[in-house]
Amino acid sequence: MRKLLYFLLLAGISLGASGQMGSLKGIIRDTAEKKNLSHAVVSLLRSSDSVLVKFTRTNSQGSFEIPDLLEGEYILMITYPKFADYADKIKLPASPLDLGIVPLTPKSLLLQEVVIRNNRAINIKGDTTEFAADSFKVKEGATVEDLLKQLPGMQVNSKGEITAQGKTVDKVLVDGEEFFGADPTIATQNIGAKAVDKVQVFDTKTEQDQLKGIGNAGEGNKTINIKLKESAKKGYFGKLEGGTDFDKIANAKVMYNKFRSTKKMSVYGTKSNTNTGSLGWEDRDKLGLENNDYEYDEITGFYMSYGDFDNEFNDWNLRGIPDAYTAGALYSDKWNEDKNKFNLSYLYNRLGTENTTRTISQTLLKDTTFSTNSISKSSGLSQRHTISGKYEWKIDSFSTIKYTVSGKYNLKTTHTESASVALTGNDDSLNANIRTNDATSTKRQLDNVLTYNRLFRKKNRQLIATFRLGLIDDNQDAKLTSITNYYKNGLRDSTELIDQLKIYSGSSKTFGTKITFNEPLSSKWNLVTEYSLNVNKSTSYRNSYDDKDRNKEYTDHNDLYSNNFDLDATSNSGTITARYQGSKLRMAMGSGLSSILLHLNDLDLKAQKKYRFTGFTPQAQIGYKMKPQTGFSLSYRGNTVQPSLTQLQPLRNNSDPLSIYIGNPNLRVGFNHSMSASFNDFKVLKGRYMFTNFSFTFQRNAITNFSLVDSFGKTTYMPVNVNGNYNWFWWGVWNSGQGDKKLLSEIQPQANGGRIRNYINGHRNTNTYAYFSLTYRLRYSVTDKYSWNIGPMIKRNLSKSS
Q: Residue 297 carries which DSSP code?
């Protein structure tokens, strides 16, 4: 018996020795008075069953340390008289863990900002505001969009655009994942409010932005995460709605969702004559891909895409009565304790439009004035197939790999008939044009993004590496027929006939990599370095053929309106940023340098050209939070602006014979100085928020279009450099009230001006201009159906030419 006891004792000792031990320490501080709190109770609970593991009290300096802890997940709870309790989950490694400063908020201060009702209706933690959905009353059958209208600080307009705390919401997630790509309204307008557990609102930032601590100057949007109830994840729910005027207008939506544990399956479809199929307010260029590839914009302009597909399904560009269809399917799953995540979706968009546009314009020149009346009838059909996938693998507690892929196939056909007549001030004819444009376009696009995220044992040390491969194939066949009569003194002087077949084809291959590394210098200071390399190889073949054959075949090549070239573009850029992050004060400053090399092979002229641009991007930002949800920020950003190949290459386009655009190979590189200041204040208790932003931009060698009108009213546009261009903008919004009773006031003055100096046709031209506008709007909405707006608008234009 004694030997058995010795054996059990030794086994217990050896088992305890095999466990990995760690420790926990930190400092407890009052967020209001910035004083360390002594004798605060610090408890550590087991995460699985909330059993107390150990506890201690802070010393006279407010610090604490709990030694001899097993590796694992715990709940840290801190209590102190007259302060709100602090509770948070922590993952303890097999090494000492220093939490640094742990803030406690006085209850008196917390009650000024948050109303606790129906078991914590609103919870604010850092930059995240969380709403308990069941605490806000909505009508039977309400959607997430109806729920958002009831939340303090939220605005949703008729187009589905969401504003949170004065900032635009550009992404809506469901349980942290994209729902049918990046289209926000599919989630907000089709998921029922009863299925929602919580709504979280936080700032939109990419992982690289979070490391650098610098966003867009004076800007920064919001992201909404819809957390579903567990009961909604274990069954199925759906939505079916429709409406019609039994004549020309119909609108119908259907959605079916089946959730089982971590698996989600959804089917979605719409038919609409009132919008483009609820595709949101900013149709993404890459549905299903996160918006983390903006760094590749440096060479975006060097590939000429002839089909305008990016904004095709955007309600903002909609003209006429649409005939829109959408259909989609979504499947997602998580497994292995959420270490593996998979998301696959398909989306089909179909949009047919017919519209008639009438335009009356007046052109004021130095020595003459003429007016133009025009009418245009157009019809078109656009279709898009999109397949998107994402796989994320959390290798261990330090490393994560994510792969996203998106493939698109676009098909578009258009037919336009236009007629216009220009008259002088004496009602004499100046020109008259009748033309027809027909076009059929196809575009195939494949984007691949691989991201590797690596953490290290040293706190805040992090590495993010991104690799991208993009492929594009673009084709278009177009036909232009036009008759233009030119007049002098009211009598016909000449006639221009155009009958052309235009064949366009292009391709693009882009490879890019970006590596970002964060090195902590202290508990508050970090140094972020970044390098990116992008290589693009593209072809652009644009050929026009005139009808000169007796058999009506287009065999005569038109050299003036043809252009064929190959392009190689290489971009190298690097940045270094120092970032400081305190409890209230945050700031970052840094600079970047880029080099862009373009190698153009002009196949028509059998000539080669090289363009080299150097970019410089200094930037700085400082933000200060006076209290939770209240703060201001100042920022500066400088960036080099390179002319695009479309602006450099002397390529003519005669799709409108009375409006000709030509390139300018003598364009210079420009530089922008942008400064911004913003202030926000959000009161959850009163449902009141105020947001204001002022920005000023000074541009050197900015690129704008110079127009030249000849004696027949024909306008030629050419990009030129603007010296001393500037603009400023101020926007303020104040909102008070919740639910259906809200009062909103906005004011948006802006101004810009500058001076153009260039040589056109051998003559020196100087043009100084200024523009100012003031818009004020006051809106009071009693229900979602009735609202009124008041406000003046002031515009003033000054111009002087010599």
A: G
Of 719, 698, 689, 696, nearest to 707 by C-alpha is 719
The whole-number average pLDDT for the span 171-189 is: 71
Tokens 């270094």 belong to which residue? 576
Backbone angles phi, psi at 712, to 5 degrees: -100, 5
Stated length of the chain: 802
Residues 6+ apart with CB under 8 A from 212: 516, 528, 530, 575, 577, 579, 588, 590
Neighbours of 701 (CB within 10 A): 19
Distance separating alpha carbons of residues 256 and 264, to the nearest angstrom: 11
**Is-contact 58 79, C-beta < 8 A?**
no
Radius of gyration (C-alpha) of the chain in whole angstroms: 31
Structure tokens at 785: 């159906």
DSSP 386-454: EEEEEEEEE-SSSEEEEEEEEEEEEEEEEEEEEEEEEEETTS-EEEEEEEEEEEEEEEEEEEEEEEEEE
pLDDT of residue 113: 44
**8 A C-beta contact, residue 410 and residue 309:** yes
For residues 639 and 592, give the distance between their C-alpha atoms in angstroms, rounded to a whole number.
9
Distance in angstroms (rounded) separating the CA atoms of residues 691 and 220: 12
Q: How would DSSP label each residue in 214-279?
A: --STT---EEEEEEEPTGGGSSEEEEEEEEE-SSS-EEEEEEEEEEETTEEEEEEEEEESSSSSS-
Q: From CA 192, how far away is CA 146, in angstroms rounded?
A: 9
3-state secondary structure 40-101: CEEEEEECCCCCEEEEEECCCCCEEEEEEEECEEEEEEEECCCECCEEEEEEECCCEEEEEE
Pick from 475, 608, 594, 488: nearest CA to 533 = 594
State pTM to two decimals: 0.65
Number of Cβ atoms within 10 Å of the Cβ of 268: 24
Q: Is 598 helix (H, G, I), strand (E, B) or coil?
A: strand
Query: Position of tokens 């593996």?
Result: 340
CA distance 377 to 345: 36
Distance between CA atoms of 432 and 484, rounded to whole angstroms? 6
Within the chain, how many helices (H) and strands (E) appear?
6, 41
The model's pLDDT over 452-484, given as tens digits with 9 standing for 90+, comes to 999 998 888 999 999 999 999 999 999 999 999
- Give the pLDDT of residue 375: 94
Residues 363-386, mean pLDDT to the nearest whole number: 88
Query: What is the C-alpha separation between 719 and 650, in angstroms, rounded?
Result: 10
Tell me which residue has tokens 């989950």. Answer: 89
